[in-house]
Amino acid sequence: MPGNRFRTLTWGRYALDRRARCEAHAVSAVPLAAVAPSLSDPNHDEALAAHAQTLLAQLIQFNTVNPPGNEEAAQEWLAGLLTGAGFSVELLSAVPGRPNLIAELAPTGGRGDGPIVTLLSHVDTVLADAASWQHDPWSAHVDDDGMLWGRGAIDMKSQTAAEIAAAVTLAQSGWRPATGLLRIVVAVDEEVGGTLGARWLCEEHPERVRTDIVLNEGGGALLPIGDRRFYSLGVGEKGVCRFVVRTRGRAAHASTPGVGDNALLRMVPVLAHLAQAELQLDLTDAPQALLEGLGLLTDGRSPEEAVQALREQAPDLAPLIEPMLRVTAVPTMVSASSKINVIPARCEVRVDCRIPAGMDAETARARVRDLMAPLEGIELDFTETIVGNGSPLQGPVVEAITGWLKANDPEADGVVPTILPGFTDSRWFRATFPECAAYGFFPHRHMPLTQTYPMMHAADERIDLRDLSFAARAYRDLVTELLG
Ligand SMILES: [Zn+2]
Fold first, then answer.
1. Residue 320 lies in a domain
2. Whether residue 212 sits in one domain with residue 98
3. Per the structure, how many domains does the chain have?
4. Is 242 a domain residue?
5. Separation of 442 CA from ligand 1 center, angstroms?
6. From ligand 1's centre to the CA of 152, what distance in Å?
7. pLDDT tens across 183-232, in order?
8. C or N terminus of the chain, fewer CB within 10 Å?
């Protein structure tokens, strides 16, 4: 898309299991008075904030560590809440005990030709070792600094809570879309790949989740660059181009090393090479717009100089941004002899290689071959290639988000598109519904990415409650802007 550059919209100073069984669940309503102080006025920000906090605290107290997940109790509780607010709700399960939630709010007079807006999240979490936490990971403790603690406080029960608090508040006030459809999808099983969750819904029930717009995790982070502050908008995800490097030697008894030829030792230069090699920059559309939006790629500066400026101005942030800009190749697994006293005739190292969104498979493999070219006596096998995925850098959703941030945090310096180095459930929606525009967006006004990122999948995960209410307001206002 030539000329399709995000900067035109920035502001401020810078411009399965296919045999799985499907089960439908009956849902009973939960009284709203139990969770929300005042729902008659959707513009009552304090009431919305209190509602989101109550929801998050309750969600964290459901232990949904995956495996095994055990999401059913949490999902039924959410289903009751949404039913009570006027949504039509369905629980769809690939296996018993792991239902996905789909809730819909339609215009009074029928759908019309407006868009389907899906607020997407997942309710499962990774594990937590309570012994290494300062507060119990399922207590939802709120400390004196206004931080709510618990597994899922960032990834991503906070977004589930903010999305549903916004949707329930709107529905309870009597609001309905003028046209189109508001849909909430709370998936299970994201943390181990979505086989029973978003992937299963998209592949087995596309008619139930077909959508035009998705808001999901993977963006909205606060990016501090020197004394400037930017918000990220997740527009895509990197792909993978995983490979195996193999060396061969000659087996022998380990007591007589001169007789054999140790394939493991032949791997030493390979690992040394991977340790210090830095692949060239590959600026596809979004990363190019990112560096421009951050004000780093200006005035004839080369991309390499822009990266150097990033390292100088934001040394803590740079390691989180740089993977978006190039192929990365990280050795993570090794196998050689299976016996302590046998010199291995063969050694294999597995490399987790990640490729920018917008790079095709052939280019990615060429990068890997170039990387490994200086090494002699190795075999190279590609084991898994999945190209990255992404959504347009401009359009009504990007405009709505950019406008909302400009109005609600006028001191900030802009919105920039980011590419997630990993995957989220957005990939299944982008793959199944190529026309849909999916974005990662949970705006953090107070906690920068350098603080939130290390908490994900780690001990002491917690969220600033001001950010939770900021996000809930964003979903409320974006939904009404996109659906009327
Ligand atoms: Zn997540």
1. yes
2. yes
3. 2
4. no
5. 12
6. 8
7. 999 999 999 999 999 999 999 999 999 999 999 999 999 999 999 999 99
8. N
